[in-house]
Amino acid sequence: AMMEESKLTRFQRRYLMDCATRGDTLPLQCHPSASREPAPSAPAFSSPVCQPCRLSAKPHLRPAKVCQAGDAYTREKFKPRARRDLEKEKQRLQNILATGKDVVERKVNQVLVQTKEEEIPEPDRFEELVNEVQERREFLAEMEALGQGKKYQRIVLTEISQKMREMEIIDKKRSEEMREIMTKDFPSGNKS
Hints:
InterPro entries: UPF0193
Pfam family, one: UPF0193
Organism: Sagittarius serpentarius (Secretary bird)
Protein name: EVG1 protein
Helix content: 55-70%
């Protein structure tokens, strides 16, 4: 249908059909009456940029020298790592074969877990709240600088007020605890 619309001659249609059945690429120009394409005359200019590009049906493979010249064949340099203690490994294997259990590793894990629990102090909720309020203030300042302050102002101020309320509750609890401690230490005297 496309050939009929493009008003090709019978020779041109036959030539294009032959190219398609052979699997060749279609020619850029199909001469109307010659059975052979005319030999290309000497071009007026020999610039390779101006010549029409013809793509072949076969994929182009790069030569081995070109592939080897790239970084594809370079190996990474060996970097030795810390060596393991072979004596400990032997003892561990002996324990596993003798008892069926890895006794040494369990003791080490228990000791490590106990030290980790002791080292990590409980995070202070009051300090966390102070940090969260500061983050929200910084966020609001950034949004105002970008011209989006009105969009986020209500949400951020609501969150800040909630954090402040929680901080007040924590502060009241701490002050009550301090009063109790002070009254226990000094039972008689002024209660001011």
